[in-house]
Design goal:
seven-stranded parallel β-sheet; 17 helices; Rossmann fold; six-stranded parallel β-sheet; globular; 385 residues; 2 domains; 13 strands
């Protein structure tokens, strides 16, 4: 008998023994690379965390020393280093990035995708390697599911492929988060127009090219400016931020007006608060379209080339936004778009419908799928989702 088959049989026997010993107890391991990864998984964790039968554990397999920082906004739970996790038996493993932890005792592995912008396409959108080792792939949209099939990463009849949507964004549409309460919670003046600047991470992003000048000009014009950076843009390594401490650079400018440097990992409260978004090419740029509010896009050709973004995604964002190239053009576009906020509404709705499957109800589907994996009846928590 082949070694792989022997290991598989041993893992199944281990699972059966655990279920026999404690039939109503399950363990779920969350693994994250950044705090933003956890923000993607958080709605599922919050919903199922109320179930006493399910115990969650945290891990940051790539950088265990940062576990506390990565899960800083998460409810209290036991943290594990990779060595300890490798000795334990889990009933499910959940990640929002392509993180493959060593778990010799075996577990169903579930992938939740952390963005829709199409960056690093040969890794995340049209993979040049097999994704068949994942037991569930919670696709945010049908477009990426089709791309996985076309690239040969999964089979056309894959049982792992599940069209779920993006649970993180449900709060933008289910009535639990709206502009007034978001502004109040952030301490911003609801009487002033609010602009959210959310560039992607890269030394070739708009942040490095015109970000500081643009933020200063917007602040001078009297807008409340929120700067929400990708977690990677706050990393001092050149490959992530260009080697700049952007908090130190931008916070004094923002303090001089009625702005703020966002520190939360979840962009949703900042999106809800904003009347307009400025980005270059980030997932937040697409996510914001669900609110049907104006988007200004800073065109960065080198960023597009170096981060392997398929032209489809560039065209989609361009069709739903106003494209600019300089800080002055950006400020002018903000004034113009805020004066006619409905001008690109049809295009925004069209792109959002293509990239987000049934937004507002994704958490429900993700939770149902996870309970199926755990082989538990979800009845006890249905009312809370």
């Amino acid at each position: 008998m082949a070694l792989g088959r022997i290991v598989e049989l041993a893992q199944r026997a281990d699972t059966r023994f655990q279920r026999w010993r404690d039939p109503q107890s399950r363990a779920v391991l969350l693994n994250a690379r950044t705090a933003m990864n956890y923000a993607v998984m958080a709605p599922v964790h919050r919903a199922m965390g109320k179930d006493p039968r399910v115990k969650f554990y945290y891990m940051a397999s790539e950088c265990p020393e940062r576990t506390r920082e990565i899960y800083r906004e998460a409810p209290e739970a036991e943290s594990l280093n990779p060595r300890r996790a490798a000795t334990m038996k889990f009933d499910a493993y959940l990640a929002a990035d392509l993180l493959w932890a060593m778990l010799p005792r075996g577990t169903p592995r579930i992938q939740m995708f952390h963005g829709v912008a199409g960056k690093y396409g040969r890794v995340y959108d049209r993979p040049d390697r097999s994704m068949r080792a994942w037991d569930r792939l919670f696709f945010i949209n049908r477009k990426r599911m089709r791309n996985f099939i076309a690239a040969g990463a999964i089979d056309p009849d894959s049982r792992a492929a599940r069209l779920v949507g993006m649970p993180k964004l449900d709060c933008l549409l289910d009535g639990s988060l709206e502009r007034g309460s978001a502004l109040s919670s952030l301490g911003l003046d609801p009487a002033r127009q609010t602009v959210l600047y959310a560039p992607t991470w890269s030394p070739y992003s708009s942040l490095n090219a015109i970000g500081e000048e643009m933020v200063a000009r917007l602040t001078e014009r009297g807008y409340s400016v929120i700067v929400k950076l990708h977690d990677r843009s706050r990393d001092p390594e050149f490959v992530h931020s260009g080697g700049v401490d952007w908090g130190a650079r931008l916070e004094p400018i923002l303090r001089s007006g009625n702005g703020m440097f966002a520190t939360g990992s979840d962009a949703c409260p900042y999106m809800a608060a904003a009347d307009l978004l400025i980005t270059d090419h980030s997932s937040v740029g697409f996510e914001y379209l669900l609110l049907d509010r104006p988007v200004v896009r800073i065109e960065m050709p080198e960023l597009i080339a170096r981060t392997d973004i398929h032209p489809d995604y560039v065209a989609l964002l361009a069709s739903a936004s106003t494209t600019v190239h300089t800080a002055l053009e950006a400020v002018a576009a903000v004034e113009r778009e805020l004066s006619e906020p409905a001008s690109r509404s049809a295009a925004r709705k069209q792109v959002a419908s293509e990239l987000f499957h049934e937004p507002g109800t994704a958490t429900r589907r993700a939770v149902r799928e996870l309970y199926e994996v755990l082989e538990l009846d979800p009845a006890s928590v249905r009312a809370s989702i």
